[in-house]
Design brief:
The protein is elongated. The protein is 43% helix and 22% strand. It has 9 helices and 12 strands. α6 runs antiparallel to α8 and α7 packs parallel to α8. The strands form 3 sheets. A 5-stranded antiparallel β-sheet has the order 2-1-5-4-3, with helices on both faces. Strands 7-9-10-12-11 form a 5-stranded mixed β-sheet, with helices on one face. It has a two-stranded antiparallel sheet with strand order 6-8. It is of the alpha+beta class.
């Protein structure tokens, strides 16, 4: 059986008009049907209810004369007299206006010009949605986000100042103790606090756009480490290599702390002779959502599985804990040519070669500032 269409179903004009009027009345948003002179042919029940007007005061009236001129809005005139005749349709056009019985309202308007085959004059369907409450909520949300950013900025500033104060106190204390071992531990603590401060500083500077570009972030971080730990007369360089990629702010923070710990460890233990040339290479590569971070040196090397201070193991614990938070594993490879520590996320597959000091393409040279 052939499906019945509108033409077959509604052969009488009266029936088609009844259907059209029922459709208009069924829609929840206020709707007006206007003729080419912008007089109201029909209005939905929701229009009468929303704007507190009666059919007697609406039908056959000019739109701009409705409700003592409450629809005589400059932006609406532009819509109906210029945009619709030129384009035939308009979507999501927002108008703010003070309505006498409703107060200030933000309306989202949609309009469409309808043409008829039998020669009838075209009409305009004008739909309107009151989005006042939604707009208020959006403005409140934007203001809350602005206040949050201000508070976060203040918090980061205070955290940075607090870390600097703590580091200064530790360093002053290290200068007053008699025990060489205690002094060394305090100096290590000072360097770790300074490393956390450096991570926070560079992370904050890089986080304005959302995700962090890991390559430049690690380059700035390694530059700060070199400034604080490598003297001018020490021939050791730190370089950043790899294809790079993006990370969330939280991931970047953990990556920065891992890199800081491993680079500090390499500078302290891989090059016992301050006059021997050496380099530390930090590489970060991504494959889809997986990634691999490695810190390699061409120093004296260490037994497999050892990459922290042999007595306390604090560095080992820090790196492994951070790697676990990132869902990554830690692997240490040591030989007479140096040590490489790899932090590998998920099923990352190395692309042909590991990041070795002799193969990596450096992008960051050691700064010349003394420690």
């Amino acid at each position: 059986m052939k499906p019945t269409g509108f033409r077959e179903q509604f052969t009488a004009i009266e029936d088609a008009c009844a259907l059209a009027h029922s459709i208009v009345d069924t829609v929840r948003e206020p709707i007006l049907v206007l003729d080419k002179e912008l007089r109201v042919i029909a209005a939905s029940r929701s229009f009468y209810s929303a704007f507190k007007v009666s059919p007697e005061d609406t039908q056959g009236k000019l739109l701009y004369a409705l409700g003592d001129g409450q629809w005589d809005i400059p932006k609406l005139r532009v819509l109906l007299e210029k945009i619709i005749p030129e384009h035939g349709v308009m979507e999501d056009y927002e108008v703010e206006h003070e309505f006498p019985r409703l107060g200030h309202r933000t309306m989202r308007l949609n309009a469409r010009q309808v043409f008829y085959k039998e020669g009838a004059a075209p009409t305009i369907l004008l739909g309107m949605e009151d989005i006042t409450a939604r707009s208020i909520l959006e403005h409140e949300k934007d203001e809350l986000l602005r206040q949050k950013d201000m508070l976060l900025e203040e918090l980061q500033h205070r955290v940075a100042n607090s870390l600097q104060i703590i580091a200064s106190i530790i360093l002053l204390k290290a200068k007053t103790v008699d025990s060489e071992e205690t002094r060394r531990h305090l100096q290590d603590a000072h360097q770790r606090v300074m490393s956390v401060a450096a991570v926070q500083q560079h992370l904050h500077a890089s986080a304005a756009g959302g995700n962090i570009d890991v390559g430049p972030y690690l380059s700035k971080l390694c530059e700060a480490i070199a400034h604080s730990m490598i003297a001018d007369n020490r021939p050791v360089t730190i370089k950043v290599a790899g294809e790079g990629g993006n990370a969330t702010s939280r991931q970047a923070e953990s990556l920065g702390l891992i890199v800081t710990e491993l680079v500090m460890n390499a500078l302290k233990h891989a090059f016992p002779d301050d006059k021997i040339e050496g380099r530390v290479i930090v590489a970060y590569d991504m494959a889809g959502t997986d990634w691999k971070l490695s810190v390699a040196d061409d120093g004296v090397g260490k037994p497999d599985g050892v990459f922290a201070q042999p007595k306390t193991g604090l560095g080992t614990g820090i790196v492994k804990a951070l790697a676990q938070q990132l869902g990554a594993t830690v692997e240490t490879l040591a030989n007479p040519d140096g040590t490489t520590v790899s932090i590998t996320h998920a099923t990352f597959a190395a692309k042909g070669s590991q990041a070795k000091p002799s193969q990596a393409k450096p992008s960051q040279a050691k700064p010349s500032q003394a420690a």
